Every structure is written in structure tokens, then in C-alpha cells.
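User: Second chain of the day. Same drill as before.
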Amino acid sequence: MHVPDGFINAPVSLATGAVAASAVAVCLRGARRELDERAAPLAGLVAAFIFAVQMLNFPVAAGTSGHLLGGALAAILVGPYTGVLCISVVLLMQGVLFADGGLTALGVNITDMAVVTTVVAYALFRLLAKALPRRRSSVTAAAFVAALVSVPAAAGAFTLIYALGGTTDVPIGKVATAMVGVHVLIGVGEAVITALTVGAVVAVRPDLVYGARGLAKPLEIRRADGTVVPVEVSKAAPRPVRKIAGVGLVLALALAGFVSYYASTSPDGLEKVAHDKGIDARTEEHAAKDSPLADYQVKDVGDARLSGGLAGVIGVGATLAVGTGVFVVVRRRRNRAESAASVSETV
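Assistant: Same format as last time:
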């Protein structure tokens, strides 16, 4: 659903850019509460994994494909504030390095694909998590539904943005029907990928899933007379995340470097609707069209499979590096704030 340059006029692009910048600023502050010793080491990897999976377009209808948006997955794994930052990093890397999603439309894409999907998905996930039994399967089920709903919600948000600032004269009712209709189908794929990923992590390390925190019941002792006494357990050192991080990185590299070659080449939902309805009549050339990685191909590498695989691996590495850098800075600010608070209490 990457919106290219030219779909949305300048005033609305600037307005959504301001919305996106404000959302990112809020999330940089909010992420300090989420990036603890468990989430901080994995947040950059989550961004890199989502970058890799977004390369895997899957067919959803005749001549149409879809791909993961990732807002639900990121929010459930590392928290909603950090999730918005993860998707924003992915979109930035895609726009700057791979000419995927317009640079003047970056605000539109962050608002739609990062903010809307994450907020809608996590709000629905929390509602379902409270209503369902406190089991691991409930986390997976809630993730499925939240991801499913988040995609047509993003399609609806794009339709609203287009209604405000579309550069072509297409009836908004036709755009809404086509966008929401095809993205309901794409949402099913999003839901399956999200549920499988969340379910796999919950099965082996539920402590690493932000949305599953509090799932474990407190330790209790039942006395002979039937009374139950809670047992205080001292905080142990967090379990290392190296193993699962290594597995996640290898999987991301394999998906981007090898499996992506077999992805569907059909246009995604937005591209298909834009072509069929004439929304793309004023599409502009991408400012990064001459990038050596444009269109997810390494320039001057003749073999298409090798070129695409190398581009995917570079993209995973770049997203991991930038994402990790952002989250390390946010984590350090949290540590400084905690240290300052501790000193103030001591004094």
C-alpha cells in the first residue's frame, strides 16, 4: 500500500507529514516505557523482519497481490509506540534506498501504514485480550483478528486522505469500495502471518511478547486449610535473547535473500485499484529512481535472482542497523531518566 509521489496534492501531503512527524515524536517518548531489557534488543530485529516479510507479495485475487503491513505484528511484539517507530523505519528505508513509496508521500505512508494500522490493531488486540481467557492461544487469536481489521482500516484511511487531496477526479465511492474490498482479502494474509509469528514466539518465549505480558499467573501456595498465599519471587536477571534473535535474523535474511524471488509479481492492492480507477494518472517519478537498489535490484548485477537477493539482504541489514540505532538511543534516554529519578529520590 505504498503511496507514490503524485497521488496526493502538496497541501495534504504536508499536513500528513506534520501528523506523521508529531506521531513519531510522541512515539519516541512513549517507547521509553516499552523498551526495557527484554524489548530493546529485539526492536531493531522486528523492523528488519517486517522489511523482509514485506518483500513477499502473495496473490489475493486475479491479477492482484498483497503484502504484510506489519503494524499489528510490531505492536504486539514490542509495544504500540515502538511498533509505530519500527514501521516508520521500514518505510524510510524503502523510500530512500529502494524507491518504494514516494518521498513527498512519506508522511502519507507513515500516517497510513504505521500509525493507523498500529493504533487500530493494538486497541482491538487489548480489547480482545481482556475478553478472552488468559491463555497463550488467546494471544494468537487476538493477534489474528487485530491484524485482519487493521488492513482495511488502513485502506479506509487512504481513501479519506485521497478524498481530501487526491490529484485525479475519481468518485470517492468507487475508490472506497475497491480499496476496502481488496484489502479485506489482503487482511486475511496479514492475519495469518501475524498469528503464526506471534504464536511461534509466544510458544517459546512469551516473556518477549509485549502483548502477552501478565499472561503467567503469580506463584501461589495452597495451604492444607484451603487458603491460598501468594509467593513473592525476587526479580531474576532477564533471560538472554541471543538465541531467538539469531533465529529471527537468519529467517529474515532467508526470506529477503531467497524466498522473495518467488513472491507474486502482480501489482499490490493499491497499485491495482490506482490503475483500474485512474488514480495513477499523475504519478510522478521517484526522486530515488536512480538509487543502486531501486526496485529491489542491485544495479549492474545481471542475474535477477542474485540481484534481488542481494538487495533484500542489504535492506535487512540497513533496516536492522538504523532501527537498532534509534532504539538504542531511546533506551539510553530511559536509562538516564531512571538514573536521574533515582538520584533525586536519594537526595
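The chain is about 65% helix and 5% strand.

User: Great, on to the next one.
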